[in-house]
């Protein structure tokens, strides 16, 4: 999509960077955890070392889900390894909860982040100063759930306004102070890509032709506005500054099959029978209420209250004494965890039986086919112990099995699944996704960098997301900490 927009002349600032700088591809290891990109980036560490693979993580000690927070799952962000004399600005870095700050550091978080981790500022008063000069944040909390023409038009305008405002804020900060490192993330583009990828999640029969044209061009408009804002930011940088612009993962059409996994697991768990598992009252209430209503409430209460609600309802998701495995929150690939004795507070699966249970579950999942085409919807599974050492420090917080989808068509074009052993799971054909998201994550990232010593042209190879911060440390002349998993990208240092 970016290549097309560059060719059409709609991203002149990115096009100029590509002409002047080094372009390359990025991927985060392992690629099956698509929201792992940000923690890998700002910690330069691997999944098994830090465990921050999603915004909500399973805590086996409490038998519940919790929002990421270094208070209970500590991480070491890169700036804690920099000498305090460096002047560093971090602006709207995703997944940054209450992380430490330093004496020469400027931190602004929650202004236009796609994921809500709360509002942060350092030094105190920065938020008020920026509000006085640029107005209140233009990006609101996400309305997760079914969409319509009105909500998509609102999403479009919100992204355009937020990109414009965020570009002005970054330029403002850069012109008022000189930083050794200035890191800013345009989160509104991510929001727009989720909901404006295409019109598959709204009913378009009665949409006026003019409105349809606007909506069909909305995603391009979002990236065009981000490029305009990027241009204003770059004019505030020093002429000899090293600049790197990147996207840590990509976006593509959302087939929506991950939304089926919890129901599929419950069907297998009860042997295809009609008896549903016991659920806690709060969880049943949450499931019964429409997402639009729930989100209208949760986006209006403090972040701390939302964080507190997650453990409350997830503690009673199931009758734990009779639940051998369960689905975890996911973005595209499916994540399944065993309710293992000795690891979970209320575990019921003996560790000696774990391999057998996983093998049975794999066979059951891969046996389901689309009712109409007869084709499997799952191409395979991966045991997490094949991706992460069982002895890794954070292994106990991770799923046990990753589900890899390979559906014949999007989930809303299916009328259900069938298994020779477990029977049918029927669904109304033509339904919309519970998330309302027409776009979803892909593992393909990219970067372009320019500055002294960096030769222009395409990169000779792709690189790991964990390599970006070690490269920046080399630019700063700072020693690379031994715990960094990545290594500096030579092409961005010597111009080779």
Structure description:
The protein has 496 residues and is α+β, with helices and mostly antiparallel strands. Helices cover 31% and strands 17% of the residues. Strand 15 and strand 16 form a beta hairpin. It is globular. The mean pLDDT is 92.
Give a brief outline of the structure.
The protein is built from 15 helices and 20 strands.
Task: Record the SSE blueprint.
Blueprint: H1 2-7, H2 12-20, E1 22-27, H3 37-43, H4 47-50, E2 56-59, E3 64-67, E4 88-91, E5 105-109, E6 120-122, H5 126-134, H6 149-176, E7 181-184, H7 187-195, H8 209-216, H9 218-234, E8 243-247, E9 250-253, H10 261-269, H11 281-288, H12 291-298, H13 303-314, E10 325-327, E11 334-338, H14 354-366, E12 369-370, E13 378-383, E14 401-405, E15 416-419, E16 423-426, E17 439-442, E18 445-450, E19 457-458, E20 463-464, H15 468-476
Parallel strand pairs: 1-19, 1-20, 4-5, 4-7
Antiparallel strand pairs: 1-18, 2-3, 5-6, 8-18, 9-17, 10-11, 11-14, 12-15, 13-14, 15-16
Helix pairs in contact: 6-7, 6-9, 7-9
As a percent range, the share of helical residues equals 25-40%
CA-based gyration radius = 23 Å
Low-confidence stretches: none
Number of strands: 20
Q: Which structural class do you get from the secondary structure elements?
A: alpha+beta
């Amino acid at each position: 999509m970016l290549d097309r927009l560059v060719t059409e002349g709609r991203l002149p600032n990115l096009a100029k960077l590509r002409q002047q700088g080094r372009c390359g591809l990025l991927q985060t290891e392992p690629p099956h955890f698509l929201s792992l990109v940000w923690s890998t980036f700002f910690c330069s560490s691997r999944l098994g070392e830090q465990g921050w693979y999603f915004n909500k993580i399973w805590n086996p000690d409490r038998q519940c889900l919790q929002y990421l927070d270094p208070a209970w799952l500590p991480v070491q962000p890169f700036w804690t390894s920099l000498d305090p004399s460096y002047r560093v600005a971090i602006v709207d870095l995703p997944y940054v909860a209450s992380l430490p700050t330093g004496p020469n550091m400027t931190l602004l978080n929650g202004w236009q982040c796609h994921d809500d981790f709360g509002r942060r500022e350092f030094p105190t008063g920065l938020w008020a100063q920026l509000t006085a000069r640029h107005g209140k944040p233009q990006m609101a909390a996400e309305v997760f759930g079914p969409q319509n023409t009105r909500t998509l038009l609102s999403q479009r305008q919100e992204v355009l306004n937020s990109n414009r405002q965020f570009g002005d804020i970054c330029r403002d900060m850069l012109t008022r102070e000189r930083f050794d490192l200035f890191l800013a993330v345009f989160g509104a583009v991510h929001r727009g890509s989720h909901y404006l990828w295409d019109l598959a999640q709204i009913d378009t029969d009665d949409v006026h032709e003019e409105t349809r044209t606007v909506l069909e061009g909305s995603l391009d408009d979002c990236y065009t506005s981000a490029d305009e804002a990027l241009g204003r930011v770059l004019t505030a940088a020093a002429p000899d500054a090293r600049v790197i612009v990147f996207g840590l993962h990509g976006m593509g059409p959302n087939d929506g099959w991950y939304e089926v996994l919890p129901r599929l697991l419950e069907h297998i768990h009860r042997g295809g029978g009609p008896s549903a598992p016991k659920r806690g009252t709060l969880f049943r209430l949450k499931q019964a209420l429409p997402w639009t209503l729930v989100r209208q409430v949760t986006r209006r209460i403090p972040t701390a209250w939302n964080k507190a609600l997650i453990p409350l309802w997830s503690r009673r998701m199931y009758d734990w004494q009779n639940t051998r495995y369960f689905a975890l929150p996911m973005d595209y690939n499916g994540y399944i965890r065993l309710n293992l004795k000795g690891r979970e507070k209320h575990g019921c699966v003996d560790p000696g039986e774990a391999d057998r249970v996983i093998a049975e579950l794999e066979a059951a999942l891969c046996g389901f086919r689309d009712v109409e085409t007869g084709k499997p919807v799952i191409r395979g599974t991966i045991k997490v112990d094949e991706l992460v050492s069982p002895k890794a420090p954070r292994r106990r917080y991770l799923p046990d099995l990753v589900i890899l989808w390979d559906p014949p068509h999007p989930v809303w074009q299916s009328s259900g699944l069938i298994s020779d052993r477990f029977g049918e799971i029927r669904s109304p054909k033509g339904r919309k996704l519970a998330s309302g998201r027409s776009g979803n994550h892909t593992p393909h990232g990219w970067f372009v960098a320019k500055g002294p010593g960096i030769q222009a042209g395409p990169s000779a190879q792709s690189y790991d997301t964990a390599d970006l911060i070690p490269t920046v440390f080399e630019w700063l002349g700072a020693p690379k900490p031994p715990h960094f998993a990545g290594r500096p990208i030579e092409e961005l240092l010597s111009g080779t």
